[in-house]
Amino acid sequence: MDRTDAQLMEASLEALGDRYDGMAAELFDRYIADHPHYAPVFLNPEAARERMTRETLEAMLGLAAGEYWVDHAVTNFIDLHHNYADFTPQDYADWFALVTGTMARRAGADWPAGASAAWQRQADGLVAKVAAVERNQEVPVRT
């Protein structure tokens, strides 16, 4: 039986289980290490870490499930982040790839076959949505 992306993604989160603990901090620290020019824009990294990770997972799962709210969530991501810096679609793609890769590595042999591809398809969909969002010019970029 073929599983949908949403089913594969849910199974991969179950496989990840308790290995999720500490992942948000690891992701954020790795992202900033790879993108140090963004470090100053996160005034409270501890607060951003978990929120960014959970919202990313929710948006990817929501997209896979065809949830109506995903487009609005992406627009909100863009407006919120635009308040801090001019994040590009590639910056989002880098983050999404880091999230998926880190989950797969942490889950190890328990990671379901096809799960990484399912997550990547949803990441690609979100990046396309990010690229299509008209930035709200009334929201200034913090300098």
Tell me, briefly, the overall form: globular
Secondary-structure class = mainly alpha
Poorly predicted regions: none
Summarize the main sheet. Answer: none
The total of beta strands comes to 0
- Span of the ends, CA to CA: 52 Å
Rg value: 15 Å
| SSE order | HHHHHH
| Percent of residues in β-strands | under 5%
Number of helices: 6
- State the helicity in percent bands: 55-70%
> What average pLDDT do the residues reach?
88
What does this structure look like?
By secondary structure, the chain is mainly α. The chain has 6 helices and no strands. It has helices at residues 5-16, 23-34, 45-64, 70-82, 89-107, 115-132. α1 (5-16) crosses α6 (115-132), α2 (23-34) packs across α5 and α3 packs across α6. The longest helix has 20 residues, at 45-64. The mean pLDDT is 88.
